[in-house]
Amino acid sequence: MIDKIIDAVNDFFSSVTxxxxxxxxNKKEEAYYNEANLQHDLSLYLKQKFQEKIELRLEYPVNKLxxxxxxxxxxxxxxxxxxxxxxxxxxxxxxxxxxxxxxKYNAGMPLALLHALNDIQFCEQIKESNNSKxxxxxxxxxxxxxxxxxxxxxxxxxxxxxxxxxxTNVQFTLPKEIIFINSIETxxxxxxxxxxxxxxxxxxxxxxxxxxDNKDIIKLKSEHEIKWEIIDNKWLYYICKF
Length: 242
Prior knowledge:
- It is a single chain.
- This protein has one domain (2-241).
- The longest helix is centred in the middle third of the chain and has 21 residues, at 109-129.
- The protein has 6 helices and 12 strands.
- A hairpin with a 3-residue loop joins β11 and β12.
- The strands form 4 sheets. The chain has a 6-stranded mixed sheet with strand order 3-4-5-6-12-11, sandwiched between helices. Strands 1-2 form a two-stranded antiparallel sheet.
- The two termini are 14 Å apart.
- α1 (2-12) crosses α2 (35-50) and α4 (109-129) packs parallel to α6 (185-200).
- The chain has helices at 2-12, 35-50, 62-66, 109-129, 156-160, 185-200, and strands spanning 21-24, 27-29, 55-61, 77-83, 93-101, 135-146, 171-174, 177-179, 217-219, 224-227, 229-231, 235-241.
- The protein is of the alpha+beta class.
């Protein structure tokens, strides 16, 4: 079922989905202009495709899933959570958690990529915090951006995400320890905010799995595979499933 849903997400990220559409004054504009717009349409697409097989919620409180009001993770809400065994009361609950990032065209790209890393951290923390034997969890983080940018800066976070001028068949593994060499102030501030939230009160979690005392380092508990896909040479996206 998980693979079918991921295949459906890939189908959603097709050239037809992203074709400009008439909306105001009979002028064509991009179909997606912010993350909420994309999140809504992707959720509706999955809900309609799988109908009676899944249940779906948006911006779901992570504490509600984990049944723990005190634990503090790197984020408060899950972007999209899908219950895979809808209506089956005598089986363990099984969920797919999706974290989605779609920065606006004028957003600061370095910080958006840092937030994509934090999405992976957040999912790892949920996995680590799930002490219930009756809940099985799967995760997918998605990052979408336009492909109109000139990826010329082979430094700090751009280098980590292998972003370059030629994005054909780019596939790589994110390391467990990510060191920002020659990082810019925007990244330094972003890393500091991540550290502050994770270390505030992570309950039984060992926060050192995700941050260190060094200034420009964040960590992942596991390695993760990233493969960039291109839509009509206009959009870039990846789906990181684990």
